[in-house]
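Worked example 2:
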Amino acid sequence: MLKIRNIAILFLTISCMVFVSCKKEKPDPAADSSNFVVITEVVPDAILEIRYYSTYNFIGCRVDGYTEPTALLTRQAADSLLAVSEELKAQGYRLKIYDAYRPQMAVDHFLRWGSDLNDTLMKAYFYPDLNKDVLFDKGYIARRSGHSRGSTVDLTLFDMTTEKELDMGGTFDWFGPESHPDFGGNPETGEYTGECNSPSGRTITAGQFEHRMILRRAMLRHGFKPYNEEWWHFTLENEPYPDTYFTFVVKKL
């Protein structure tokens, strides 16, 4: 009887060990990069200028989580971006990517930077008209970013004729109304109105507004939706991970 009891105890012990082991090994969905691709492997003629890998960004240093100067997207978003690229290439443009998938640790870095109101190293370049303490409330920096879900991209156009970036009348990550899609016109109709609500009297020309619209129209035609605060920011309408904020670092897969 004692022998049977000992065997039963041993069996229960082993079962518990197996259960605990299996529980520990359960993968974290947020760390899974298996449905992500390197953008340039899908869109080979895309130009990369990964600002958060460099020091030329609103913080002024490389951002946490950017371990290589590359850009990642979910497979679905990258395939749609390829369709955008093919359409625009026929018009003489290439896509230039500033940012795509952004790990949560990078967003956390933004939060730490935002809490230090004395760190205004790059204010003159990216937010000269604003106090740093309003950047989150105005939507220029998010506490949880759609970029971390893997289907959002920040981009502009490169003119293959002039071999320069297309003049959009503003720069990536400029924090102010000048970056809004409706700055100078109606993005829904594409009509230039010249109405500019810049606190410093900045304006945008009809040509610059139309350049923004070229990018916007192509992105919307191929399944992306715009963002009201930034002309360069688009998210796949039917993003595959609407509730997952991924954590793996940016590097070649």
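Residues 35-236 form a domain with the Muramoyl-pentapeptide Carboxypeptidase; domain 2 fold (CATH 3.30.1380.10). The mean pLDDT is 92.
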